[in-house]
Fold:
Amino acid sequence: MIKTRFAPSPTGFLHVGGLRTALYAYLFAKKQGGVFALRIEDTDKERFVEGGIENIVRSLAWAGLRPDEGVDLDKMGKITQKGDCGPYIQSTRLDIYKKHVDELIKKGHGYYCFCSKERLDELRKMQELNKMPTGYDRHCCNLSKEEIEKRLKANEPHVVRMKIPKEGITKLNDLIKGEVEFKNELIDDQVILKADGYPTYHLAVVVDDHLMKITHVIRGEEWLSSTPKHIQLYKMFGWKAPEFAHLPLLLNPDKSKLSKRQGDVAVENYKAKGYLPEAMINFVAFLGWNPGTDKELFTLDELVKEFNLSRVNKSGAVFNLQKLDWYNEQYIRQMNLSELVERCVPFLIEARLIKDYRKITDEYKKWLEGVVALERGRVANLSQISEALKFVFIDKLNYDAGILVWKKSTKKETEKNLKLLSEILLSTKIVQIWTKENLEAKIGEWIKEEELSAGSVLWPMRVALSGQENSPGPFEIAEVLGREKTVERLTEAFKKL
RNA sequence: GCCGGGUUCGUCUAGUGGUUAGGACAUUAGGUUCUCAACCUAAGAACACGGGUUCGAUUCCCGUACUCGGUACCA
Structure:
């Protein structure tokens, strides 16, 4: 049974790079009918951020990546844990790690180290100065049993290190990077248990991946260099190591590692701006992977079918907002209207265009569909939609009267046309049915009969209704506004001139 | 410094020991149009560099450059 996991640290929010890592792990597992687990790696007390776990879980849920196992957010908004390997939050598994560290010491694969931070800093400085590789010098490796005993009893601060064999090489056949070799003499005797009793990442990740029966470790490239340490730990425990797949990094436009400084990196920010999870997933999936065909739009289920680690790139990919916008536009345009309205409502409320959620009747929703349709083809995200739709909801439009006159027309002609237009639209005899199709037909007829130029009528009509030089078409707006409001705005425009 | 990765249009990428090096986003131009957007058409735009191997390398090998990651009692 294939099992992958996403194992973030709750040091803030879910990062878009993390989202992609989670996605690939999810896709790989699901493609093969396997299990996708979520584990929280909170072994650094200093960097723990309140609410970090909730943020990660919420962002994953938004993206549609639901873990089968591990940490989950239940209906009450509380964190629960499922799975038969004990809790999936590392800080609650301290006794498990302690037990395994003791085992390594007993087997001679681990040793106590009492070195001070100052000594280690000094050591490193000297090594660099001499152009030597850096690493622990095994100062505490051969302390006598009695001395260790004595110093432990005296409560001297100490850590436990793993004892890496100095001969030979450690090979890794990465599913993405291919074969990579490391000389053992250059692998550091890494600390596995910190002075505060918490394990380091290296120990915890190996113990947990083994105990939780993870078959494929899919993680960011920043772990590639420490993988030989992990492979050595598997050996020391006598365990079979999982397969490894190290993903290339996501980059800033200047090709540096994707960071906050150059834009949004938190998934929740994209959600807040009105990017659809479908677009986000599709976009992020294509950063470093492609199906080998020209098809670009994929649902999560389609990705599951097509995904393949062997088509994942080895090099980093720039996180390109313009492409994200394009994906989002595609999804906004192809989504069915009532669904789109549902998703827009929170943004309309946020922008205070709609006051009360509870007042949204079915009839009102139907009307909103027409409203949203006005702008869906012109915006890149949902917060832009609510911004663009302000003119529909606003009571009194505020614009400069000068823009009412079409560039090829005159003020006099504009006045005349606006006046006649109002009369036509007001007449229930001429315009019986208030739909954009009928409005277009009737006004088109009139323009033709009177031999007017379309622009001299449609431009001022559209500007009068929207208050903007650039906007959706006059008939669509009129339909949404209704007869009364439409005529009111035309009259207002006439007065302005 | 040491160790490990990477390098095809501006960006995401396809691809091959012999191709007019393909697509998408972006850009530019034209069409459509009352405006913007959308849409349609077209254009420009890439194999990091230097050596090999080979009849022939963008593709295989070796170096160089650049770049990214690691080098923590952070993950």
Summary: The CA atoms of residues 63 and 277 of chain A lie 5 Å apart.
